[in-house]
C-alpha cells in the first residue's frame, strides 16, 4: 500500500528499482509464511514450497509459465478469502482473462489503484504479479490483526566489555613481558667468563682485605648442601664464541675436510664397484649387439632390399595416382554431361508422353468446327437475305417496267 506513489513515478526511480521486485517477493514469502500458506494452500493442492524468487521473471529461474499462473491464481483466491471477501477458487482450465479480471476487480474493491493492463498478469510472473499478491497479503494480515513491529534489541553492557578487554590487554602484555624477560633470566643464570676474568684481575690488583687468621664457619653443613643444590644450576659457565674469528672458520674447514675425506673413502669403494659392474654390463651389451648383428645380417639385407622395392612401388603408385586423378576428373566431366543428356531425355520423354497438348489440339479442333458451323449458318442467312433482296429488287424492276408500258398502250387508241 505504501508503494503506490512510488510505483506511479516509475521514471523517477533509480537504477536499483530493477531489483526491487526481488525484495517484494521475499517480503511476500514472509507474509505468506505468517498466514500459514504451507498447510492451507500447498498441502491442500499437493504443491511444492515456493522459492525466494518464484514469481520473479529472471533468466536464473527456469519455471513453467502455466504452473506459475495457476499458483498465482490459487494464492490470490486464498488471500482474497482470507481478507474477508468471498471468491471462488479458480480451476486449472478456466479462462485466464476472466480469472485475472476477477482478481483485479477484488483488488480495486480493497482500494488499491490498478494502473497496469491485465495482460501483465497472464505470464504468472513479474513485478505486477508480486505487487498484486503483496497487496492481497497485506489485506489478509490486516484482517487478522497482524502487523510487523520493529525488533527490540537488548541493551549492551559496555562497561563489562571494556573491563574484559582491559583484562585481556593486561594479560597479553604480561605474557609479552614474561616472554621478553625469560631470556634475560637465562642470561643472568649463565655466568659470563669474560666478566669473571675481569673480576678476578680486579680483585688481584686491589690489596687483600681478608684477615690473616683462619676463618671458622658457623654455617650448618646440611643447610650449606641445600644452598649448593639450589645454586648449582645457576653456576654454568659458557664461552661466547665470536663468529667473526677466522680461527673458528679454519677449524670448521678442517672438520669438514676430514668429514669429506672419510665419506669419500667409503663412497669411493662403492663407486669403483659400480663402475666395474657398469663396464662389465656394457661389454656384455656390446658383445650381444655384435652377435645379434651377425645373426641378423641377412635379415637386414632383406629389409633394405624390401625398403628399396617399397620406395619404387611408392613412386609407381604416385605416378599411377596422378593418372587416376586425371581420369577421375575426366570421368566427372563425362558424368556431368551424361546427367545433362539424361535430364534432357527425361524432359523430352515427359513432353512426348504428356497428353495435354493433344487434348488441347482436340479441344481447339472442336471449337474450330463449332465456329465453322456458326459461320456456315451466318453465311446461309446472309445469302438468303441477299437473295431476298435481289428478288425484291427484281420484282420492283418488273413492276416498274409494267407500270411504264401500260399507259402508252392505253393512250394509243385515244390518240
UniProtKB/TrEMBL annotation:
Entry GO terms, CC: cilium; extracellular region; Golgi apparatus; intraciliary transport particle B; microtubule organizing center
Alphabetical list of Pfam families matching this protein: IFT57
Localization: Cell projection, Cilium
Predominant cellular place of this UniProt entry's protein: other
One example of a Gene Ontology biological process annotation: determination of left/right symmetry
Coiled-coil region(s): 264-351
Keywords assigned by UniProt, alphabetized: Cell projection, Cilium, Coiled coil
PANTHER family: IFT57/HIPPI, INTRAFLAGELLAR TRANSPORT PROTEIN 57 HOMOLOG
Family named by the database record: Belongs to the IFT57 family.
Record-given protein name: Intraflagellar transport protein 57 homolog
Organism: Seriola lalandi dorsalis
Amino acid at each position: 500500500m505504501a508503494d503506490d506513489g512510488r510505483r506511479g513515478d516509475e521514471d523517477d526511480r533509480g537504477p536499483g528499482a530493477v531489483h526491487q521486485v526481488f525484495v517484494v517477493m521475499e517480503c511476500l514469502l514472509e507474509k505468506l509464511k505468517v498466514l500459514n500458506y504451507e498447510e492451507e494452500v500447498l498441502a491442500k493442492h499437493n504443491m511444492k514450497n515456493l522459492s525466494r524468487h518464484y514469481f520473479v521473471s529472471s533468466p536464473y529461474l527456469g519455471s513453467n509459465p502455466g504452473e506459475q499462473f495457476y499458483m498465482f491464481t490459487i494464492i490470490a483466491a486464498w488471500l482474497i478469502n482470507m481478507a474477508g471477501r468471498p471468491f471462488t477458487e479458480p480451476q486449472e482450465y478456466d479462462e485466464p482473462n476472466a480469472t485475472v479480471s476477477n482478481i483485479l476487480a477484488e483488488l480495486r474493491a480493497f482500494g488499491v489503484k490498478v494502473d497496469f493492463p491485465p495482460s501483465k498478469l497472464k505470464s504468472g510472473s513479474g513485478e505486477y504479479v508480486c505487487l498484486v499478491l503483496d497487496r492481497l497479503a497485506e489485506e489478509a494480515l490486516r484482517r487478522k490483526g497482524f502487523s510487523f513491529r520493529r525488533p527490540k534489541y537488548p541493551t549492551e553492557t559496555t562497561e563489562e566489555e571494556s573491563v574484559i578487554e582491559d583484562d585481556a590487554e593486561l594479560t597479553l602484555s604480561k605474557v609479552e613481558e614474561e616472554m621478553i624477560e625469560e631470556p634475560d633470566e637465562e642470561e643472568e643464570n649463565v655466568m659470563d667468563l669474560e666478566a669473571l676474568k675481569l673480576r678476578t684481575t680486579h680483585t688481584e690488583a686491589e690489596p687483600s682485605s681478608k684477615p690473616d687468621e683462619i676463618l671458622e664457619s658457623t654455617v650448618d653443613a646440611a643447610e650449606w648442601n641445600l644452598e649448593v643444590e639450589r645454586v648449582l644450576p645457576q653456576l654454568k659457565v659458557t664461552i661466547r664464541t665470536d663468529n667473526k674469528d677466522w680461527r673458528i672458520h679454519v677449524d670448521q674447514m678442517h672438520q669438514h675436510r676430514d668429514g669429506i675425506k672419510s665419506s669419500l673413502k667409503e663412497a669411493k669403494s662403492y663407486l669403483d664397484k659400480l663402475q666395474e659392474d657398469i663396464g662389465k654390463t656394457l661389454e656384455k651389451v656390446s658383445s650381444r649387439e655384435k652377435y645379434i648383428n651377425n645373426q641378423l645380417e641377412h635379415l637386414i639385407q632383406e629389409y633394405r632390399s624390401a625398403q628399396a622395392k617399397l620406395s619404387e612401388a611408392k613412386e609407381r603408385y604416385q605416378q599411377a595416382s596422378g593418372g587416376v586423378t586425371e581420369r577421375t576428373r575426366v570421368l566427372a566431366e563425362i558424368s556431368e554431361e551424361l546427367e545433362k543428356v539424361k535430364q534432357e531425355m527425361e524432359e523430352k520423354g515427359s513432353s512426348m508422353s504428356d497428353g495435354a497438348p493433344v487434348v488441347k489440339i482436340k479441344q481447339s479442333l472442336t471449337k474450330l468446327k463449332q465456329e465453322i458451323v456458326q459461320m456456315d449458318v451466318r453465311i446461309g442467312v446472309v445469302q438468303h437475305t441477299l437473295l431476298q433482296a435481289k428478288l425484291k429488287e427484281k420484282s420492283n424492276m418488273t413492276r416498274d417496267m409494267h407500270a411504264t408500258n401500260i399507259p402508252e398502250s392505253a393512250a394509243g387508241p385515244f390518240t
